[in-house]
């Protein structure tokens, strides 16, 4: 009896898991930082060549874009995206595939994303005579670093020729057990802006503060006061967070007041109007505090990723398709997050669905969060990652371009 396309996808995902695991382990062992993914991109290109899938490289830096054409390829197109970059973290795991590059690690699962998408590519390429339309595969550089590889690839035309009517992305999620996935329609993840603040005063002896203008005290006042932007100025129904994660003084010591202090932080929210209003308020408040205390403040904001919006209709359908493919017990609803993702740039261009791939396994001790030096995944998740994305692509194309 001939298999249905759903059963065929399941079978191919199962049979291809060993290869996807091999790919993931290779990528994990040889990670590359944002916008330096040269060898990773070459590896992806070689994998696509083995599958005889045409591709274009060098999009937005090291980005690779490939096309799988089914029947009537001009009828409709959808896009699938995976990011490729790693983080500047020293890995502490003792595994055969642990990072061979000191100080660089795939601590956010982008190796799993890329491996899963190559697994999806193999499945869809094998079944391209059974679905109509075109699948665009986007292997993206630089998700972890501004301005975000997604923005650069969009600027260089990744969403044209052909233009997809929707785009899907997935991300590992350690709190969710391998084999499960999670969805959330509407606003899902926050915008992310980087704050760089330099407070200048007049240094001197720590025992003679009256002869100085202490930038440490000014900085402390600024950090504390700026929390009012979130607690007293933001609309309570708009989630926002302001965090300063780094403070450095220029030459300070136990008994030395420095001339300046540098602060680094992040501001995140889910409303674009409030986002830029908050920028103005923070800058005005910090400069005013510094001036009132006899110093000066340079407040620089690097505008980062917008909030990520999951198209409500597309995401609702994707959840139902996932239930059909995996079973209702394997699909969960996700809470709002104030972390960020440059997939958000795609979500502001096209109907998009960014979902979570469960990768945790407490019984195996695989519980460490992303961006941890001990992060790892239960590789059983890779079968789910490759198979489900292929199924979502087929389902989306089967419905055709939305009216």
Write up what this structure looks like.
The structure is a single chain. The chain is α/β, with parallel strands linked by helices. The chain is 34% helix and 25% strand. The strands form 4 sheets. It has an 8-stranded mixed beta sheet, sandwiched between helices. A 4-stranded antiparallel beta sheet has the order 10-12-8-13, with helices on one face. Strand 1 and strand 2 form a beta hairpin. The model has no long low-confidence stretch (mean pLDDT 97).
Brief descriptors of the model:
403 residues, alpha/beta, Aminopeptidase, 2 domains, four-stranded antiparallel beta sheet, elongated
Summarize the structure.
By secondary structure, the protein is of the alpha/beta class. 34% of the residues lie in helices and 25% in strands. Strands 1-2-4-3-5-16-6-15 form an 8-stranded mixed sheet, sandwiched between helices. A 4-stranded antiparallel sheet has the order 10-12-8-13, covered by helices on one side. Strands 7-14 form a two-stranded antiparallel ribbon.
Task: Quickly give the CATH architecture of the largest domain.
Answer: 3-Layer(aba) Sandwich
- Supply the CATH superfamily name of the largest domain: Zn peptidases
* Strand runs, count: 16
Sheet with the most strands: spatial strand order: 1-2-4-3-5-16-6-15
Domain count, please report it. Answer: 2
The class by helix and strand makeup works out as: alpha/beta
What is the rounded distance between the termini?
36 Å
What is the share of helical residues? 25-40%
Reading off the top of the CATH hierarchy, the class of the largest domain is best stated as Alpha Beta
Give the rounded overall mean pLDDT.
Answer: 97
Rg to the nearest angstrom? Answer: 24 Å
């Amino acid at each position: 009896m001939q298999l249905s396309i759903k059963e065929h996808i399941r079978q191919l995902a199962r049979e291809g898991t060993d290869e996807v695991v091999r790919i993931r382990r290779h990528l994990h062992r040889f990670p590359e930082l944002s916008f330096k993914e040269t060898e990773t991109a070459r590896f992806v290109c070689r994998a696509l060549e083995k599958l005889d899938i045409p591709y274009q490289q060098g999009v937005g830096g090291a980005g690779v874009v490939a096309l799988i054409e089914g029947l009537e390829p001009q009828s409709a197109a959808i896009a699938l995206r995976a990011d490729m970059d790693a983080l500047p973290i020293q890995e502490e795991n003792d595994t055969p595939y642990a990072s061979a590059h000191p100080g660089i690690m795939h601590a956010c699962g982008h190796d799993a994303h890329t491996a899963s998408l190559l697994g999806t590519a193999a499945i869809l390429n094998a079944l391209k005579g059974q679905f109509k339309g075109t699948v665009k595969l986007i292997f993206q550089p630089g998700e972890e670093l501004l301005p975000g590889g997604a923005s650069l690839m969009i600027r260089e035309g990744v969403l044209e020729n052909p233009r997809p009517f929707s785009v899907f992305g997935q991300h590992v999620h350690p709190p969710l057990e391998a084999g499960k996935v999670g969805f959330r329609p509407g606003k899902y993840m926050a915008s992310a802006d980087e704050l760089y603040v330099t407070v200048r005063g007049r240094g001197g002896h720590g025992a003679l503060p009256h002869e100085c203008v202490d930038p440490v005290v000014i900085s402390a006042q600024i950090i504390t006061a700026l929390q009012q932007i979130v607690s007293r100025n933001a609309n309570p129904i708009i989630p926002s967070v302001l965090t300063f994660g780094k403070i450095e003084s220029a030459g300070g010591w136990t008994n030395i007041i420095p001339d300046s202090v540098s602060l680094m932080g992040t501001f995140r929210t889910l409303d674009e109007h409030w986002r830029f209003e908050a920028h103005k308020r923070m800058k005005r408040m910090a400069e005013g505090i510094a001036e009132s205390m006899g110093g000066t403040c340079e407040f620089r904001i690097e505008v980062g990723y917008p909030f990520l919006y999951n198209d409500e209709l597309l995401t609702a359908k994707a959840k139902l398709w996932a239930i059909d493919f995996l079973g209702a017990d394997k699909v969960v609803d996700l809470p709002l997050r104030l972390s960020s993702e440059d997939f958000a740039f795609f979500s502001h261009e096209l109907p998009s669905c960014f979902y979570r791939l469960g990768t945790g396994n407490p019984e195996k001790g695989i519980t460490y969060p992303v961006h941890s030096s001990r992060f790892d995944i239960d590789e059983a998740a890779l079968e789910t990652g490759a198979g489900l994305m292929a199924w979502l692509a087929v389902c989306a194309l089967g419905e055709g371009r939305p009216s």
